């Protein structure tokens, strides 16, 4: 039986911050003389705390959908609204879908709140401590060269305070207790035939149908070329007499692109100190590239960033306005730095919280799940 952490690596505790699991939808496909298969996954993760956690980006309740490691929808107890996280989700799904989704998330938020209280009372825990309950369910499938999806596996599992305790075995159609304290719950849920039938049906059919729909929508968007947004800006260099001039192109598809930094019309090369990030994926299936070169702060030459993107038939040269970092005109670099710091703070907070709950730091505490079928 796969564990919560194994199936969903990087999501010990889920929040608005994202990290990697499963496959990239734009990943290189496997080609062979006899097979053409691509693996896909659709997963939903719900995380609830017993009371608000005063950490940036961590909400009392969070729910999100992930298609091939890409967040496609999101809900938290602060906004209390299910929102799209991909452009194609916003474009293709009607208002009614999001309204029903919001109602469903709000209902689940209340379900989690009730059940965490039940767990705390039954395990004689104090309400002063923070506890977390998670539920993850989803499916994995293989897509052949003709676009047909075949069910591979499903997952429906619960996790309490960082420990796996109950999961559904789709093949045997039984609940599996990973902790002795969960055995009574397993027995009760195994007796509810309707629950087992619904869970199996959702994983093997309904989940796969939604995966097929979402994949179709995302691929249709990718058939349409997206032109890049282009920025040329300066940031501080280690050498005070210099600045780093950066050309950034982002949001383009397909990924083939030519980027040149020019000085008075001449293309600068590696010999001039140009370094490139290469083409990298964004979180919305588009791409970005960033080239930079270190120049003298006093350089008065004309610098431009040339972008050639054949897919969108775009050819543009972005001039540098010679504004320097000390003139407070480098919002892109600042925004990127702030975003990275916030993500790191969230991840550090999550890790520290899990370590605390496992007794690795702070006081030692062991928690078990004893949720009955009636709850």
UniProtKB/TrEMBL annotation:
It comes from Oryzias latipes. The keyword Transmembrane applies. Keywords: Glycoprotein, Membrane, Transmembrane, Transmembrane helix. It holds the Pfam family MHC_I. InterPro entries: Ig-like_dom (IPR007110), Ig-like_dom_sf (IPR036179), Ig-like_fold (IPR013783), Ig_C1-set (IPR003597), MHC_class-I_related (IPR050208), MHC_I-like_Ag-recog (IPR011161), MHC_I-like_Ag-recog_sf (IPR037055), MHC_I/II-like_Ag-recog (IPR011162). Belongs to the MHC class I family. The keyword Glycoprotein applies. The chain crosses the membrane at residues 332-356. This is Ig-like domain-containing protein. Residues 228-317 form the Ig-like domain. SUPFAM superfamilies: Immunoglobulin, MHC antigen-recognition domain.
């Amino acid at each position: 039986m796969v564990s919560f952490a194994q199936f969903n690596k990087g999501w010990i505790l889920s929040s608005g911050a994202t990290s990697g699991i499963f496959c990239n939808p734009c990943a290189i496909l496997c080609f062979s003389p006899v097979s053409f298969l691509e693996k896909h996954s659709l997963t939903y993760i719900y995380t609830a705390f017993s009371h608000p956690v005063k950490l940036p980006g961590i909400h009392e309740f969070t729910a999100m959908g992930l298609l091939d490691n890409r967040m496609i929808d999101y809900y938290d107890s602060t906004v209390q609204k299910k929102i799209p996280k991909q452009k194609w989700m916003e474009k293709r799904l009607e208002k009614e879908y999001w309204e029903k989704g919001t109602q469903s998330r709000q209902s689940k938020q209340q379900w989690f709140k009730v059940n965490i209280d039940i767990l705390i009372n039954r395990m004689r825990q104090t309400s002063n401590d923070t506890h977390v309950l998670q539920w993850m369910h989803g499916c994995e499938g293989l897509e052949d060269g003709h676009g047909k999806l075949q069910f591979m596996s499903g997952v429906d599992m619960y996790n309490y305070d960082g420990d796996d305790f109950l999961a559904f075995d789709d093949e045997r159609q039984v609940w599996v207790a990973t902790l002795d304290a969960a055995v009574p719950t397993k027995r009760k849920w195994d007796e509810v035939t309707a629950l087992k039938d619904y869970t199996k049906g959702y994983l093997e059919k309904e989940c796969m149908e939604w995966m097929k729909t979402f994949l179709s929508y995302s691929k249709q968007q990718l058939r349409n070329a997206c032109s890049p947004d282009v920025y040329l800006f300066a940031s501080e260099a280690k050498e005070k007499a210099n600045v780093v001039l950066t050309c950034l192109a982002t949001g383009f598809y397909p990924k083939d692109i030519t980027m040149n930094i020019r000085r008075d019309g001449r293309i600068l090369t590696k010999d001039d100190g140009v370094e490139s990030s290469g083409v990298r994926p964004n979180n919305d299936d588009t791409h970005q590239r960033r080239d930079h070169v270190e120049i003298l702060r006093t350089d008065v030459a004309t610098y431009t960033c040339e972008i050639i993107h054949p897919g969108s038939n775009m050819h543009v040269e972005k001039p540098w306005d010679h504004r320097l970092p000390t003139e407070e005109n480098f919002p892109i670099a600042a925004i990127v730095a702030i975003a990275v710091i916030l993500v790191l703070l969230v991840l550090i907070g999550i890790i520290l919280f899990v370590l605390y709950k496992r007794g690795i730091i702070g006081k030692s505490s062991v928690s078990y799940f004893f949720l009955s079928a009636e709850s």
